[in-house]
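Design request, C-alpha coordinates follow.
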Protein backbone atom coordinates (compact mmCIF):
# COMPACT_ATOMS: atom_id res chain seq x y z
CA UNK A 1 0.00 0.00 0.00
CA UNK A 2 1.11 3.30 -0.72
CA UNK A 3 1.29 5.91 1.83
CA UNK A 4 -1.45 8.51 1.63
CA UNK A 5 -0.45 11.69 0.03
CA UNK A 6 -0.51 14.65 2.28
CA UNK A 7 -3.49 16.87 1.88
CA UNK A 8 -2.75 19.92 -0.17
CA UNK A 9 -2.00 22.95 2.00
CA UNK A 10 -3.95 26.09 1.20
CA UNK A 11 -2.35 29.25 2.42
CA UNK A 12 -4.44 30.91 5.13
CA UNK A 13 -5.93 34.29 4.34
CA UNK A 14 -4.08 37.08 6.06
CA UNK A 15 -5.87 38.16 9.20
CA UNK A 16 -7.63 41.51 9.00
CA UNK A 17 -5.99 44.13 11.19
CA UNK A 18 -7.79 44.56 14.47
CA UNK A 19 -8.77 48.18 15.10
CA UNK A 20 -7.32 49.74 18.19
CA UNK A 21 -9.85 50.24 20.96
CA UNK A 22 -11.39 53.74 20.78
CA UNK A 23 -10.39 56.17 23.46
CA UNK A 24 -13.33 57.06 25.68
CA UNK A 25 -14.82 60.39 24.60
CA UNK A 26 -15.01 63.14 27.18
CA UNK A 27 -18.57 63.42 28.38
CA UNK A 28 -19.84 67.02 28.43
CA UNK A 29 -23.40 68.05 29.05
CA UNK A 30 -24.79 70.02 26.11
CA UNK A 31 -24.79 73.73 26.85
CA UNK A 32 -28.25 74.10 25.32
CA UNK A 33 -29.69 71.88 28.02
CA UNK A 34 -28.15 73.73 30.95
CA UNK A 35 -30.79 75.89 32.61
CA UNK A 36 -30.61 78.14 35.59
CA UNK A 37 -33.98 78.46 37.22
CA UNK A 38 -34.82 81.39 39.44
CA UNK A 39 -35.87 80.67 42.97
CA UNK A 40 -39.64 80.69 43.49
CA UNK A 41 -40.83 84.26 43.72
CA UNK A 42 -37.76 85.58 41.88
CA UNK A 43 -39.14 85.09 38.37
CA UNK A 44 -38.46 88.18 36.27
CA UNK A 45 -41.47 90.24 35.29
CA UNK A 46 -42.44 89.77 31.67
CA UNK A 47 -41.70 92.93 29.74
CA UNK A 48 -44.69 94.18 27.83
CA UNK A 49 -44.43 93.83 24.09
CA UNK A 50 -44.43 97.02 21.99
CA UNK A 51 -47.98 96.14 20.89
CA UNK A 52 -49.25 96.29 24.49
CA UNK A 53 -47.45 99.51 25.47
CA UNK A 54 -49.52 102.63 24.98
CA UNK A 55 -48.38 106.17 25.55
CA UNK A 56 -50.80 108.96 26.40
CA UNK A 57 -49.81 112.60 26.10
CA UNK A 58 -51.60 115.58 27.59
CA UNK A 59 -50.94 119.18 26.64
CA UNK A 60 -51.38 122.18 28.92
CA UNK A 61 -54.30 123.12 26.65
CA UNK A 62 -56.21 120.08 27.92
CA UNK A 63 -55.86 118.16 24.64
CA UNK A 64 -54.88 114.54 25.25
CA UNK A 65 -54.60 111.38 23.15
CA UNK A 66 -52.96 107.97 22.86
CA UNK A 67 -49.95 108.19 20.53
CA UNK A 68 -50.43 106.06 17.41
CA UNK A 69 -47.82 106.88 14.80
CA UNK A 70 -45.97 110.10 14.11
CA UNK A 71 -47.20 113.31 15.78
CA UNK A 72 -46.20 116.87 14.85
CA UNK A 73 -46.43 119.82 17.24
CA UNK A 74 -46.23 123.53 16.43
CA UNK A 75 -48.21 126.67 15.60
CA UNK A 76 -49.27 125.21 12.23
CA UNK A 77 -47.41 121.90 11.88
CA UNK A 78 -46.96 120.56 8.36
CA UNK A 79 -45.48 117.20 7.38
CA UNK A 80 -42.60 116.89 4.94
CA UNK A 81 -43.56 115.45 1.53
CA UNK A 82 -44.46 111.78 1.92
CA UNK A 83 -44.20 111.85 5.72
CA UNK A 84 -46.87 109.55 7.25
CA UNK A 85 -48.23 111.78 10.03
CA UNK A 86 -50.95 110.41 12.28
CA UNK A 87 -51.42 113.36 14.69
CA UNK A 88 -51.13 117.06 13.90
CA UNK A 89 -51.21 119.16 17.08
CA UNK A 90 -51.56 122.89 16.41
CA UNK A 91 -50.91 124.94 19.56
CA UNK A 92 -51.35 128.64 20.23
CA UNK A 93 -48.31 130.50 21.49
CA UNK A 94 -48.91 133.69 23.46
CA UNK A 95 -45.32 134.87 22.98
CA UNK A 96 -44.64 133.33 19.55
CA UNK A 97 -41.96 131.04 21.09
CA UNK A 98 -43.46 128.05 19.28
CA UNK A 99 -42.20 127.36 15.76
CA UNK A 100 -44.50 126.47 12.88
CA UNK A 101 -43.47 122.79 13.00
CA UNK A 102 -41.64 122.74 16.31
CA UNK A 103 -41.15 119.05 17.15
CA UNK A 104 -42.29 115.49 16.57
CA UNK A 105 -42.84 112.40 18.71
CA UNK A 106 -43.78 108.79 18.07
CA UNK A 107 -43.65 105.29 19.52
CA UNK A 108 -40.47 103.52 18.35
CA UNK A 109 -40.33 99.87 17.25
CA UNK A 110 -39.19 98.81 20.74
CA UNK A 111 -42.22 100.49 22.36
CA UNK A 112 -40.38 103.57 23.67
CA UNK A 113 -41.82 107.03 23.17
CA UNK A 114 -39.31 109.22 21.33
CA UNK A 115 -39.37 113.01 20.86
CA UNK A 116 -37.28 115.13 18.49
CA UNK A 117 -36.94 118.89 18.03
CA UNK A 118 -37.24 119.75 14.33
CA UNK A 119 -34.86 122.70 14.36
CA UNK A 120 -37.19 125.07 16.20
CA UNK A 121 -36.10 128.64 16.94
CA UNK A 122 -36.55 128.43 20.71
CA UNK A 123 -35.78 124.76 21.30
CA UNK A 124 -37.47 121.92 23.15
CA UNK A 125 -36.75 120.69 26.66
CA UNK A 126 -37.39 117.47 28.56
CA UNK A 127 -38.17 117.97 32.23
CA UNK A 128 -37.54 114.80 34.23
CA UNK A 129 -37.85 114.78 38.03
CA UNK A 130 -37.52 118.56 38.11
CA UNK A 131 -34.37 118.67 35.95
CA UNK A 132 -34.58 120.35 32.53
CA UNK A 133 -32.52 119.10 29.57
CA UNK A 134 -32.36 120.73 26.16
CA UNK A 135 -33.02 118.55 23.09
CA UNK A 136 -30.52 118.68 20.25
CA UNK A 137 -32.31 119.44 16.96
CA UNK A 138 -32.68 116.36 14.78
CA UNK A 139 -31.61 113.92 17.56
CA UNK A 140 -34.32 111.65 19.01
CA UNK A 141 -34.62 111.46 22.79
CA UNK A 142 -36.43 108.70 24.69
CA UNK A 143 -39.15 109.78 27.08
CA UNK A 144 -40.17 108.12 30.34
CA UNK A 145 -43.54 108.07 32.08
CA UNK A 146 -43.94 111.27 34.07
CA UNK A 147 -41.69 113.35 31.80
CA UNK A 148 -42.78 116.75 30.62
CA UNK A 149 -41.69 118.24 27.33
CA UNK A 150 -41.60 122.01 26.80
CA UNK A 151 -42.13 123.29 23.26
CA UNK A 152 -41.66 127.08 23.43
CA UNK A 153 -44.27 128.28 25.95
CA UNK A 154 -46.35 125.04 25.80
CA UNK A 155 -45.98 121.82 27.77
CA UNK A 156 -46.83 118.17 27.18
CA UNK A 157 -46.96 115.53 29.92
CA UNK A 158 -46.25 111.85 29.11
CA UNK A 159 -47.91 108.80 30.71
CA UNK A 160 -47.52 105.13 29.92
CA UNK A 161 -50.45 102.73 29.86
CA UNK A 162 -50.36 98.94 29.80
Amino acid sequence: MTPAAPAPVTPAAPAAPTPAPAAPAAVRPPVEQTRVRPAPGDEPAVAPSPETVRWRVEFDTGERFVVEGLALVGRRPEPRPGEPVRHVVPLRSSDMSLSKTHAQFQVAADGALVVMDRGSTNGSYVIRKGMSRSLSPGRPSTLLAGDEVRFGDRTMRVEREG
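Comment from the thread starter after seeing the answer: thanks! The first strand starts at residue 54 and ends at 59.
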